[in-house]
Amino acid sequence: MPPRLLPLLLFAALAAPVQAQSPQPVEPTAAELQQAQARSDAWQAYASRAAHALARSDGARERALAVVLEALARPADEDGVARASPTAATWRETASTRGAGDRITQQLLVAAGIAAGDPDAAGVAALRWQALEPGNLAPLLFQGLGADATLAAAARSGRQASDPLALQRWVATAMRPHAPSAAEWAAFGEGPRPSAGTGAALTAGAVQGLLVPDYREVLGACTGRQLGAPGRAQGCRHLSALLLSDPQTLHDERIGLSLARALSRSAAERAPLDARRRGVDWRDEQMADLAAREGAASAGVHARLLADTSITTEDALVRRILLDAGVAPLPPADWRAPWEQPAR
At CB < 8 A and 24+ separation, what contacts does 226-232 make? Predict the structure, then answer.
């Protein structure tokens, strides 16, 4: 994984005003590339420092989070793998042993494997997570299964529950004491330094961003002629129902809606799916606009609401952020989603 991923993920919200003013990408100059490399180096140094500070704890979760940060701080080799140092390998072994019965520890170790470009390490942690939660599809999605195996796993599963906010809340709490110093922040070149709580919440979002299942093979298997394979439509329908019954992430909801729409047979079946999709797209657009208008203040609201344990899904969190900003969570009737607008 490229070493610049951490800063890009971590401050996507704060960078939104700049992105909004750039209608098309501009080729960077040599000076800009040099500056970007210096910022990347600063982020790597900070992530490494924070990782070593966390690893001084005996806690399994702290050690596992240290492995994530250390993986993000390491440059990848020519194969795209950020190979663990002997020290990080020891952290990982300690975390996996001491946290054998803890879901969040195993989730963090899955994220560490993904960050390091090491699917085998991610898969081993996912197997341990699966053993803790039989019937949960979420850990099976990080075991490198193909489309048919994923659909078969979904058929044996009763839920898709990754519990992303519980993970983010723990990471935010753990990272709060390890906020960047003033000098470190200045080296990042990211504008005014956020509060420790805001920065920790953004780090938590970056870690969670590593745990996004890759549904591309399943989407290909569940559309067009591929649906004609024996039992395929039934398997795709069951997976869609799992993803839509109580989606904890917006990504799962989008995939579930895409699968359900591909399986629909009439305009009447598609209408409620499209209405739900319009709501998701509207909230995405309004969140981007809010970040562009308010920048770091928007990130601060996110951090405050993340701490509210009555909020249990990403969609619920987004709705609360919008409501607090005075923005309706559902689109007006005359609003058109990108996919509803005429092709140019």
Answer: 227/262, 227/263, 232/151
Task: From 138, 139, 137, select the one nearest 153 (Cα to Cα).
Answer: 137
Question: 196: buried, middle or exposed (CB in 10 Å: 19+, 13-18, 0-12)?
Answer: middle
Compute the distance between CA of residue 141 and CA of residue 119 in angstroms, rounded to an integer: 12
Phi, psi of 71 (to 5 degrees): -65, -40
pLDDT tens, position by position, 172-197:
999 999 999 999 999 988 788 899 99
Q: Which pLDDT tens digit goes with each residue over 18-31?
A: 333 445 567 888 88
Residue 4: other Cβ atoms inside 10 A: 15
For residue 12, the one-letter residue type is A
Tokens at 184, concatenated: 């470190």
Whole-number pLDDT of residue 18: 35
Is residue 241 within 8 Å of 253, Cβ to Cβ? no
DSSP 159: B
Beta-bridged to residue 159, according to DSSP, are 136
Burial 109-141 (b: 16+ CB within 10 A, else e): bbbbbbbbbbeebbbbbbebbbeebeebbbbbb
- How far is the CA of 261 from the CAs of 34, 36, 217, in angstroms? 46, 42, 17
Strand ranges (E), 13-83: none
Distance, CA of 332 to CA of 103 (rounded, Å): 40
pLDDT digits (tens, 9 = 90+) for 49-60: 999 999 999 899
Would you state the pLDDT for residue 24? 56
Lookup: tokens for 286: 């309004």
Closest CA to 218 of 258, 245, 250, 246: 258
CB burial string 159-195: b at 16+ within 10 A, e below: ebbbbbbebbbbbbebbbebbbeeebbebbebeebbe
CB 321 within 8 A of CB 305: yes
Q: CA 183 → CA 45, 187, 216, distances in Å?
A: 12, 6, 42
Tell whether the model's pLDDT for residue 250 goes beyond 80. yes
